[in-house]
Design brief:
The structure is a single chain. The chain is mostly helical. The chain has 2 domains: 52 residues, no CATH class; 114 residues, no CATH class. Helices cover 53% and strands 10% of the residues. Helix 3 runs antiparallel to helix 5 and helix 4 packs across helix 5.
């Protein structure tokens, strides 16, 4: 038996530190040694100082599906930005918004978070609540009519979730979500 109590080793998540450094440099918009060093220090402070519960990832990354996910996200982003700008410029039109509930197929916190973030980043919709235990997302849709109706808005969220799952989920997770297992 040792006289010294065991010291808890702090494991550094270097991938997260690098990612936070890249985000820091992009936020400042200037690639300098000072910005990179500040990003590394902030990344280290965040990853070691703010202890977070690890999220289990049992899937695997499918690069072509990831490209398809982000390509479709970019298309949705441009299309929705155009539609929202037209909506803002239409005189005497009052958009009819709604809060809709969407039951996701996956029960993973990771996929729920990814789906919610991608849906919130597209103009015209915003996640107002997410129930992690039930897998339910509640979204505010800016203009239900322009979105094609409530069911079309719901279908859009489920399609986004399907793209996330196909990009990152394991075959077992895809099957459990009722999605076809493909390469």
């Amino acid at each position: 038996m040792s006289l010294h109590p065991r010291r808890a080793r702090t494991r550094i998540a270097w991938g997260t530190v690098v990612w936070l450094t890249v985000v820091w440099v992009l936020l400042w918009g200037d690639l300098t040694i000072g910005n990179v060093l500040a990003g590394v220090l902030i990344g280290l402070a965040v990853t070691t100082g703010l202890r977070m519960t690890p999220i289990a990832f049992h899937g695997h990354v499918r690069p072509l599906r990831v490209v398809a996910l982000f390509a479709r996200f970019a298309v949705d982003l441009v299309r929705a930005s155009f539609e929202v700008s037209l909506l803002a410029l239409r005189p005497r039109h009052t958009p009819r918004g709604a809060v809709i509930g969407v039951q996701l197929r996956s029960h993973s916190d990771l996929y729920l978070t990814m789906t919610a973030e991608l849906c919130s980043l597209v103009p015209g919709s915003l996640v107002v609540e997410a129930h992690r235990l039930t897998g339910m997302l509640y979204l505010h849709v800016l203009d239900v009519e322009q979105s094609g109706g409530i069911e079309a808005a719901r279908r859009s969220v489920l399609d986004q979730e399907a793209r996330v799952l196909r990009a990152f989920a394991s075959d077992a997770e895809l099957a459990a979500a009722g999605l076809e297992v493909r390469a």
